[in-house]
Amino acid sequence: MTTDKTLEPAPERALPEPERRGFWKKLRRGLRMTHTEIFDRFDAAVSGKTMVDEEVIEYLEESLIAADLGVETSLELIERLRGGVRPSEALDVLRLRERLVDEMAVLLLDVPQPRPRGEAPLVTLLVGVNGTGKTTSAAKLARLSLDRGERVLLAAADTFRAAAIEQLALWGERLGVDVIRQQAGGDPAAVVFDALKAGRARKTDHLIVDTAGRLHNKEHLMAELAKIKRVLDREGEGWEQRTVLVIDATTGQNAVIQAREFTRIVDVDGVVLAKIDGTAKGGVAVAIARDLRLPILHLGVGESPGDLVDFRPREFAAALLGPPGVAAG
Ligand SMILES: Nc1nc2c(ncn2[C@@H]2O[C@H](COP(=O)(O)OP(=O)(O)OP(=O)(O)O)[C@@H](O)[C@H]2O)c(=O)[nH]1
Ligand SMILES: [Mg+2]
Prior knowledge:
The protein has helices spanning 19-30, 32-46, 54-66, 71-84, 93-109, 134-147, 162-175, 188-201, 218-235, 253-265, 284-291, 313-321, and strands spanning 122-127, 152-157, 179-180, 206-211, 240-248, 270-274, 296-300, 308-310. The chain is an alpha/beta fold.
């Protein structure tokens, strides 16, 4: 257990209906492949059985590892589960899974939670390796803020390719959000400078900055992000700032390695785990939260701006491990 007060989880806000229903549907859809990965073999293993035996537990353990929860976390979950199962206890699969959800929720509530949003306008700097989903996540975060009635501005600070600027501009058009941009090859820090100025003049609530991601040239990337950070520090008075790392969940355990490397270059406040819908390795969310102690802010569950859900430990555990058709309360 952590004793650091700042890491103590805030109590989860109950979601009002029908928000809860929409959230639950998207989360379930996003975790479908991972859920199947875990329970296909488990279901096969328990079929025809009445007792919890070693074989069932072992299948479960292997499946959790296969879903990239991380070996340590998987073993810990199994140990906790074993602690609650009496030898030759009559098997109640539902109960077993409910217990699994509870144990997982306990583990996930013991990781750093996102800082609550303050009153000040917010700048979100999106960073990450090539192709992880930064630009799409910028559009998704914009949509989330728009839904909350906030004034949003996007900044195209990935000036590396003209196509990158066009991609963000297109999202801006579709969402009805202005995009601050310069020509391709321009200075990303200058774009951020312009965006802060524009944001202040327009009383923007949320400025979302898209950046380029090239890890094959770490020096360049580091220099570019450092320069953007300097502009934010110098010109960003009155703005709350956060750096959000976008990670591609489909790369499984490599995503954890990628995140670790990135946190060496930049101070990261939280993670958006994109493309969790496209992988059976969605357990990597748990590995990132636990091994790197980075708060997971959102999960990307599709390619549309609406396909972003908050990471809520209890609900995540229930969607990942709970019996089908049971929604978390
Ligand atoms: N299924 C799925 N696809 C996603 C998700 N997020 C992004 N994508 C897709 O992943 C691809 C790359 O997304 P981008 O947003 O362009 O990634 P990026 O990090 O901005 O890429 P670069 O600018 O080239 O570094 C696109 O085809 C997106 O539609 C997601 O949550 N689910
Ligand atoms: Mg991009």
